[in-house]
Amino acid sequence: MASIIRNTFALVLAGGRGSRLKELTDRRAKPAVHFGGTARIIDFALSNAINSGIRRIGVATQYKAHSLIRHLQKGWTFLRSERNESFDILPASQRTGDGQWYQGTADAVYQNLDILERYPIEHIVVLAGDHVYKMDYAEMLMQHLDSRADVTVGCIEVPREEAVAFGVMRVDEQDRIENFIEKPNDPPGIPGRPEMALASMGIYVFDAAFLYDQLRRDAAEPYSQHDFGRDVIPYVVQHGRAVAHRFGRSAIRTSENAEAYWRDVGTLDAFFEANLDLTSVLPALDLYDRRWPIWTSTEMLPPAKFVHDEEDRRGMAISSLVANGCIVSGARVRRSLLSTGVRVNSFADVDGAVIMPYAEIGRGARLCNVIVDSDVRVPPGLVVGEDPALDARRFRRTDGGITLITQVMLDRMT
Predict the structure, then answer these.
(1) Where is this site: Could play a key role in the communication between the regulatory and the substrate sites (predicted)?
(2) How many whole angstroms from its chain centre is CA 342?
(3) Interatomic CA distance for residues 165 and 155, integer angstroms
(4) Cβ contacts of residue 311 below 8 Å, gap of 6+?
(5) Is 22 flagged in the annotation as binding?
(6) Does 119 appear as a known binding residue?
(7) Which of 8, 100, 160, 222 is most buried (CB neighbours < 10 A)?
């Protein structure tokens, strides 16, 4: 098994804008958005690769990639070529000579074939860089080899009514994929469980030579969208052997009976809920598990500090995650996540909040059910979360009742 993993390359596709996160991705790609207080979304896919034993990794970037590339350079360049390891950052650079950026997920890999073919690799794991989960890719790779599949597709079980937003698989009793449909109106059910569907996680395992052939074939197709889910996978299903890998087989859980936790944090509501999931007493996604750590770029900062202990001015945080460098100064924080370097000033009340790095909450502010973007300066006395109509006029308010606050929005108020 060790030799198989050693000859495997993990390619993370991290070029997407993530437009459903609205203003959170105005300055950064979705995989670069902060998550969990100290990490970025992309750190989960990268950490899974490292923890699975994969030591050759590439990241394909495109949309507003500066902060993502800076993060990768600071936190992920510890892999060493003299140990047969590698870490490649692959910005879209019009490599095919036709003046085109990446046209789809398959094209993002195709345009980097010259780099991939330099490495002595036998298998490629293609990963989406914008989901939050813990998974042992080695288990999926072993199923791929044992089943002699041309492609193995990672999948999760979801209610059929929710599967309309995914690529969905119809499988037989042995989980061989019979049909792959992108965002179907009527998703096929699972054999024996017709109320559930198998949805693609955007994770694929290929033999390297087979993948290269398929990408060259797809690149020559004039009507292809050059996308794995729309083009490459359906073609392999029809002309080859495609197998589904159920996430429950390889999920890293907090306990034997715990949920197999996977989240697409592509909307503001989902992003908010996934962050606040971490404040549970026993969260399904365990950031404290030293056996499967989430690696990231860390700053040398002092511990969090809580100051003042008066009756109406007590620095405290309850059912919350508070990162290094934070100062809670005579304020109350409840069921919230404070990212690196956040300051909450006296008499402020924060309840149900995801606050991004180096934001500052002004004296006497009251915030409920909010996401506060990085480096934002919330003015003293601002109240958000109590008047939905007012919040919607001043900020971005979702259908789920979550309010996003950015500095641009605050500047428009003055």
Answers:
(1) 62, 101
(2) 22
(3) 13
(4) none
(5) no
(6) no
(7) 8
Is 360 annotated for ligand binding?
no
| Percentage above 70 pLDDT, the chain | 97
Question: In which band, very low, low, confident or very high, does the pLDDT at 123 lie, cut at 50, 70 and 90?
Answer: very high
The span from the CA of 226 to the CA of 109, in Å, is 10
Residue 229 C-beta-side C-alpha neighbours within 13 Å: 20
182 is in an annotated binding site: yes
What distance, in Å, lies between the first and last C-alpha atoms of the chain?
Answer: 61
- Please state, in angstroms and as integers, the Cα–Cα distance from residue 41 to each residue in 36, 118, 132, 157, 224, following that order: 9, 29, 7, 22, 29
Residue 411 has pLDDT above 90, yes or no: yes
Contacts 24+ apart (CB under 8 A), 279-282: 279/319, 279/320, 279/321, 279/335, 279/336, 279/337, 282/254
- Mean pLDDT score across all residues of the chain: 93
Nearest by Cα to 303 from 323, 279, 318? 323
Contact 59, 127 (CB under 8 A): no
Pairing of strands 8-14, 123-128: parallel
Distances (CA, A) of 172 to 176, 197, 348: 6, 13, 57
pTM: 0.94
- Residue 102 annotated as part of some ligand binding site: yes
Question: How far is it, in rounded angstroms, from Cα 244 to Cα 199?
Answer: 10
pLDDT in tens, 356-381: 999 999 999 999 999 999 999 999 99
